[in-house]
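User: Can you recover a sequence for this backbone? Please restate the input before giving your answer.

Assistant: Of course. Working from this structure:
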């Protein structure tokens, strides 16, 4: 029974306020499935009496739960477990409704891919590799695809990318799934930034891996915190988004990369380098795959830089791991689609990839200027060439509450909770994807609405009873 959680001996964490301990206890019950959508919570007075705390403390706990999107409260109905955590759920495709501008999904800002594809498709039957499209292929991908990608990837990371160390995947998430399946076993610890790409959490849960957060600062993962985590947790690998970090936009400096790599090497920890944003940024520090290729598994993809619909990515791994990752890929999907591989290879060979990238960079730069102008009074983390911006919310906003208010104003943004590994460190921030708007004019309209919500949108929220 829920009320059994709350007695006078339950609150032993002296560093955490009691109202937050109450909120965390209820949140844990929701996460475990013990509390289900629609279930009514005991009254705040009942909880206060059982826990031996005052009513104000419990009211603050319920407010915290509502801000997280876990509880809804209505006059005459009491407090219920929310039907779904809309503010933080994993979302793949943008919502396309009249009057609604969805900035919650990362996608390219131009139609360069579609224009290149329209030109390429009629010419594909002339390609000597066309006949191979109806056949099975090795799990690593066709040799010609691996060679094309290896040549292009070498220009990106600033080092050789031998085709025999490369595997073609259905995007970076597919590659990450195969990598984790190959290198880790249930119960192994994987480290990541305390706030990071939400796909790593879903994968670790599905594979029974233990994902642990590492503290960050304004420059990314802290080397001292990483070293401490390596000593205390004996992790199998660390997952990093070193370029235009998702969601904070931070790019690790050369010094920070060297410090992290040195610690990883000394503790026998593999580096998983999710570098899908690298093609969008000029003058990026050397990749881990170039400086430390023997301990680095590099993930690349065209999803963030060319088009997510292409579903094309690659894994560059140390020679000793290629076979194991290929075995996991074979189990997962036998082999990737050769049609996608041929389209990607031809776009690389014809120079279309570079032309599309240049267009994306220029468009993102223009849109990031617009974000700075429209949200000039807001604390932002940005990069001129990033496809997203990280908005630090002012008091008294919590991330999920702001997402709900923005949604009522017709704009979709993604809550910081979606990126937090630990419930105890949920950032009061939201990610906005500048490329998701159909045009600069539509982005301006969305930013205007968000600015209005930040200024006086609290009245849009339901009351806490």
């Amino acid at each position: 029974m829920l009320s059994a959680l709350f007695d006078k001996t339950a609150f032993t964490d002296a560093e955490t306020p009691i109202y937050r301990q109450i909120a965390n206890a209820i949140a844990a019950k929701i996460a475990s499935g013990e509390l289900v959508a629609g279930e009514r919570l005991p009254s705040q007075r009942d909880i206060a009496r059982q826990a031996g705390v005052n009513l104000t403390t419990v009211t603050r706990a319920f407010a915290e739960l509502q801000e997280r999107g876990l509880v809804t409260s209505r006059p005459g109905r009491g407090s219920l477990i929310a039907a779904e955590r809309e503010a933080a759920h994993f979302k793949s495709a943008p919502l396309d409704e009249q009057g609604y501008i969805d900035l919650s999904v990362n996608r390219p800002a131009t139609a360069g891919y579609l224009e290149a594809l329209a030109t390429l498709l009629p010419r594909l039957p002339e390609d000597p590799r066309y006949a191979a499209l109806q056949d099975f292929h090795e799990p690593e991908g066709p040799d010609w695809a691996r060679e094309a990608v290896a040549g292009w990837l070498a220009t990106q990371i600033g080092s050789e990318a031998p085709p025999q160390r490369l595997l073609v995947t259905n995007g970076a998430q597919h590659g990450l799934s195969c990598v984790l399946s190959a290198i880790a076993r249930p119960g192994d610890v994987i480290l990541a930034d305390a706030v990071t790409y939400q796909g790593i959490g879903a994968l670790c849960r599905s594979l029974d891996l233990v994902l642990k957060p590492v503290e960050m600062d304004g420059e990314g993962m802290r080397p001292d915190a990483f070293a401490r985590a390596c000593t205390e947790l004996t992790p199998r690998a660390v997952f990093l988004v070193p370029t235009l970090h998702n969601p904070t936009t931070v790019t690790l400096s050369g010094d920070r990369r060297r410090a992290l790599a040195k610690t990883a090497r000394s503790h026998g920890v593999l580096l998983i380098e999710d570098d899908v944003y690298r093609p969008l940024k000029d003058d990026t520090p050397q990749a881990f795959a170039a400086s430390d290729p023997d301990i680095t598994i590099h993930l690349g993809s065209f999803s963030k830089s060319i088009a997510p619909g292409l579903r094309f990515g690659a894994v560059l791994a140390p020679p000793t791991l290629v076979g194991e990752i290929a075995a996991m890929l074979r189990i997962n999907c036998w082999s990737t689609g050769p049609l996608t591989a041929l389209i990607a290879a031809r776009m690389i060979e014809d120079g279309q990839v570079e032309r599309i990238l240049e267009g994306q960079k220029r468009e993102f730069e223009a849109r990031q200027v617009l974000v700075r102008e429209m949200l000039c009074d807001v604390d932002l983390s940005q990069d001129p060439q990033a496809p997203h911006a990280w908005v630090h919310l002012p008091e008294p906003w919590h991330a999920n509450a702001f997402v709900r208010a923005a949604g009522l104003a017709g704009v979709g943004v993604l809550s910081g909770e979606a990126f937090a590994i630990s419930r105890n460190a949920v950032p009061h921030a939201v990610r906005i994807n500048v490329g998701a708007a159909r045009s600069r004019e539509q982005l301006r309209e969305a930013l205007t609405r968000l600015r209005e919500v930040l200024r006086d949108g609290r009245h849009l929220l339901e009351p806490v009873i």
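That completes the design. The chain is about 40% helix and 15% strand.
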